[in-house]
Amino acid sequence: MSELHFNPNSAALQDAGIFGLPFDADQSEHIIIPVEWELTVSYGKGTADGPAAIKGASAQIDLNNHDYPELWRSGIWMDEFPQHLKDLHQKLAPLAETIIAAAETGHLELKPKKYSGLYERIIEGTQLKNLWLKERITYWKAKGKSVGLLGGDHSIPLAYHQYLMEAGQSYGVLMVDAHMDLRNAYEGFQYSHASIFYNVMQMNHVTSMVQVGIRDYCHEEAEFARTMPQRIKVYFDRSIRREQFEGRNWKEQVGEMLDFLPDKVYVSVDIDGLDPKLCPNTGTPVPGGLQFEELMYLLNKIKESGKEVVGFDLCEVSPGADEWDGNVGARVLFQLCGMASR
């Protein structure tokens, strides 16, 4: 189906692509790579089903976006997560669950050698996934596409940063999250969702990072951030609110956030950065967080600033009994595409 025969006012067809759009990959500016991977989550599970939930809910979203009414014309197309990696994830998931259970009962510390082989298999599998993902990002970037990742847990963007490092790209990171994700490792997992930005900040090409909405973190993470004041600026949710209660507004706060970042920015959104009423089934919900329109304002200000978005991801959407989480996630994804659009 071509744009000539597509009516953006009509209901989405069942066989249409994400957001009900008629375009194929070649016709689309934005390529979304789904990554159905969540080996290291230790609380609520389900993020591996996030991409399917978002794609399903996206068909119900009207295409006249308030900020980017013509965005649909640029084309958004969703790639596929390969079956061999889905099978690998299914094989590794029970091993990860064994490790997590041992960590939570204290057995891991008593008999670490017993679990070393399991860790090695998790690492090997994750590296295979990262290799595929980095190659896939490289493939689409070589075609001039805007590429976004759709998780899955928040460990998945590491491959994107590895790609950018190898491409010699220097940039800053803006992340929205309830958690700092700066643990050296969590429950022994080197590639944990709780360690993603610890791993990213080991890369010297990442010049700075702004964390927004943080409200659940450990001493190790807070100390790590304090050791890098020139590279990491944290906007704790409680500090944001206190400033607002005392008269400062969101416009001023967002302006300060963007001033800390260079001209090239990678944007990472963990859905739990939002108020949990917007994502009740996410794996680690925390009271507080950004309201939907606060996030929209932040993303729009990135666009208005003229900064180049070198990549983006949306993670930790986990479907529930209804389509609410997928609905909110699809709307965030649509806005991210608008933000990254040329």
Structure description:
The chain has 342 residues and is of the alpha/beta class. The protein has a single domain, classed as 3-Layer(aba) Sandwich (Arginase, Chain A). Helix content is 42%, strand content 15%. It has 12 helices and 8 strands. An 8-stranded parallel β-sheet has the order 2-1-3-8-7-4-5-6, with helices on both faces. Helix 1 packs across helix 12, helix 5 packs across helix 6 and helix 11 runs parallel beside helix 12. It is globular. The relative contact order is 0.17. The mean pLDDT is 95.
Task: List strands and helices in order, with pairings.
Layout: E1 30-35, H1 50-58, H2 71-74, E2 76-78, H3 83-105, H4 107-110, H5 112-142, E3 146-151, H6 158-166, E4 171-176, H7 196-200, E5 206-214, H8 219-226, E6 232-236, H9 237-245, H10 250-259, E7 264-270, H11 292-304, E8 308-315, H12 324-340
Parallel strand pairs: 1-2, 1-3, 3-8, 4-5, 4-7, 5-6, 7-8
Helix pairs in contact: 1-12, 3-5, 5-6, 10-11, 11-12
Low-pLDDT stretches are none
Regarding CATH, which class?
Alpha Beta
Q: What is the helix content?
A: 40-55%
Our count of helices gives: 12
Briefly note the CATH topology name. Answer: Arginase, Chain A
What is the total tally of β strands? 8
How many distinct domains? 1
Q: Mind summarizing the main beta sheet?
A: 8 strands, parallel
